[in-house]
Amino acid sequence: MVGAGVLSLLYAMAQMGWGLGITVMILSWVITLYMLWQMVEMHEIVPGGKRLDRYHELGQEAFGEKLGLWIVVPQQLLVEVGTCIVYMVTGGKSIKKVHETFCPECTPIKTSYWIMVFVSVNFVLAQLPNFNSISAISLGAAVMSLTYSFIAWGASIKKVIPPDVSYNVKMKSTSDGVLNFFSALGDVAFAYAGHNVVLEIQATMPSTAEKPSKVPMWKWCIWAYIGVAICYFPVAFDGYYMFGNMVDDNILITLKHPAWLIAIANLFVVIHVVGGYQVFAMPVFDMIETYLATRLNFSPSSTLRVITRTLFVGVTMLIEISILFFGSLLGFLGGFPFAPTLHFLPCIIWLKLKKPRKYGLSWTINWICIVIGVLIMTLSPIGALRNIIVSAKNYKFFS
Fold first, then answer.
1. 78: closest CA among 341, 314, 398?
2. Which tens digits make up the pLDDT trace of 278-305?
3. Distances (CA, A) of 240 to 8, 37, 194, 208, 383
4. Which listed residue, of 66, 165, 172, 305, carries a Cα 20 to 30 Å from 241's Cα?
5. Rounded distance, CA 201 to CA 141, Å?
6. Rounded CA gap, 198 and 192, in Å?
7. Closest CA to 16 of 177, 159, 128
């Protein structure tokens, strides 16, 4: 649940200010936890022991075989592929930061080359067959994410607050401030990214009528969200208190001292996004290989796995080394594909399958979440796309 999106939360706070920032952060935590509960509950909603092990299977149960597939799969693919792309630039920039910290005299190396270094590890790990086979990698990634989050807010607390710190929203004009706020909404949405693989993870757990998988799954989801709160809120709130609006789009770039500790934190980020890449890529591998085997009659084999997964990693690498807009890319992805799958698609499916009483508590809460999710999906890509266009004026591809 704790992803690289935590690194941009301080930047998002600087775009929103104290009041709106705290409100959006806490509201996002509550809404996405509620969405998570709904998805865990709906995993075994069909009588007779049938389990909905994929997000698109849940969509098909609600909307029908064809329509459900077309509603869910494109959005889920955008989320998972987009996350993989963001994790690549995060890993590459973090390796670069480590190198520059330990070797300040060395000749600077382009970020795109560091991304290639990061990708070389994923070419190998992508060949692991399924979720169970990456459990150790996922555990290591989770430990690293907790560790660098603690380092980020711990280093922020240790820093002396500069006398000229400002908590005013930094903007050139009112329209500039509004568009930056829209982009910040997407940054926050991106930070809550685990829902898109929750059903695939729950599918690996045993389930019986006496002991349904939703019981232990929900218990560990609660623990995960406690971890999210421990990591996200101090990084965003303490960091903003210390730095105000003078921040980069990655808190570990903003922090410079102590240099050795920040370098270690960046190294932990690298380890985390290596594991995170595998978690979000695995459902994509599953979709591609299933399509090739069932629709195009390819024989399932290790050769098919090597070719498809190597091509996927290679294509996402080429996309990422072309465009390196970390903060704006998070805002765009957080709004366009993430908001539907995180904020309102589970609500629509819940209303469709559970059919709660009209104007009752469940019905009302779900419709409020749907409205909020649609607003995030509509507004945040506008702000992020505008920031990308502004940044692109002085940008060179493959730089």
1. 341
2. 888 888 888 888 888 888 888 888 888 8
3. 11, 30, 25, 47, 21
4. 172
5. 16
6. 12
7. 177
